[in-house]
Amino acid sequence: MSIFDALLILTVLGSIVAIFTSGYFLLRRRWQRARRILLVLAISLVLYTLVLLSVALLSPQRILAMHQNRCFDDWCISVERSIKQPSIGTTTTAHGTFYLVTVRVSSQARGITQRATDAQVYLLDAGGQRYDPDSNGQQALDATRQSGPPLDTRLAPSGSFTHIVVFDLPKSASALSLVVTHGLFPEILIIGSEQSFLHKPTIFQLQS
């Protein structure tokens, strides 16, 4: 747990205490006391939000190369390969170009099994346009049994697997990068977190 994790916990607990305390004073009709507590709470939350946004906007974007791990605690992921092709199988043709991105998921845990039920990936192009995985292309690849286990597969201690994600991108898309998210809450509220509100996402630069 980082200092900013602890700060968020203290902020949440402090807010709960302040709300209940002010409610108590309101019931006792001690308006001034309740008002002071709520004012301090409001100022504290505004200051926390300002620090959260300032750190997010001023932090540089983290750029990872292929084969480099990005870890969320003991759950790690890397990009191993990226290829493009016009179709998958004989029946599924891309509207633009299919990009097949192979990711390697691994566990650094030594004594427990784990899974990432909320892990998601998407692509960004040079203009910042987001592209989510293509469901039709993914189903076609899954039918060939070449895509590997899904991202939320349970991992044994120190285990790993590879998974191929399918994207359908315009032929003009360039300078592609992959973004991995691992759930928004509570990361979106933690100061300095790479998934905090308005923070530039960590990206894997793709090479095809």
TrEMBL record:
Listed transmembrane segments: 6-26, 38-58
Keywords on record: Membrane, Signal, Transmembrane, Transmembrane helix
DUF4352 domain mapped to chain residues: 90-184
Matches recorded under Pfam families: DUF4352 (PF11611)
The keyword Ribosomal protein is assigned to this record: no
Gene3D superfamilies per record: 2.60.40.1240
InterPro entries reported in the protein's UniProt record: DUF4352, Immunoprotect_excell_Ig-like
Protein name per the record: DUF4352 domain-containing protein
